[in-house]
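The protein record reproduced below.
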Amino acid sequence: MKVITVANQKGGVGKTTVATNLAVMYALKGYKTMLVDTDTQGSSMTFRASRPENRAEINAVQITKPTVHRDIASFNADYVIIDAGGRDTAVYRSAIFASDLLVIPVGASPYDVWSTEDTFNFYKEISVTKNFKACVLLNMLPPLGNQKITTEVYDALKDLTETYGIKILDTALCYRVSYKESAIQGIGVAECEGEKHKKAQEEMESLYNEINKILGGAK
């Protein structure tokens, strides 16, 4: 079993979108997938409740106590995707401690980058006692390829990630309507029909492949 935690203390960076779409990707590939929601808002649980019965199966559970790292031992799953809340709480720390890979979404703003340093600090703190990996995912970038904004955010991140030994993923996700439209239906962008969803689908396929390369696991 592999555990992927999507977390950032900064709110509004698209954690739930990333977590739910990753869960869909693993389910579509035929893996037993568990989606864990540690946020009291329960956005991932709402996604699962909206999911049509004829779609690839995703099991889901909400854990709002700091027992995530212990509870996952009882899960019957190949991949566990944890959608961690955005505050530094005992539950948040438990969710990160449970992970084999910490995925840190960062929005397209220098302010998002600066606010993310707290998450980097916690990764550094916990990695002293546990061997796990972390990576940064640039998320919600301008869809028209505004190179200036992308470059500014990347440059702001680069020095920080090198200091903490965290990889910036080659894959980046843009701000696309496809992610919102699919979430309303309880499906991932990979399950959407129509040419207009192709770019978002390519992004998620790339993210899935890159994460698996880091984990050395799924196909």
Summary: The chain has a mean pLDDT of 91. The longest strand covers residues 133-141. The domain at 2-215 is CATH 3.40.50.300 (Rossmann fold). The beta strands are 2-6, 33-37, 59-62, 79-83, 101-106, 133-141, 167-174.
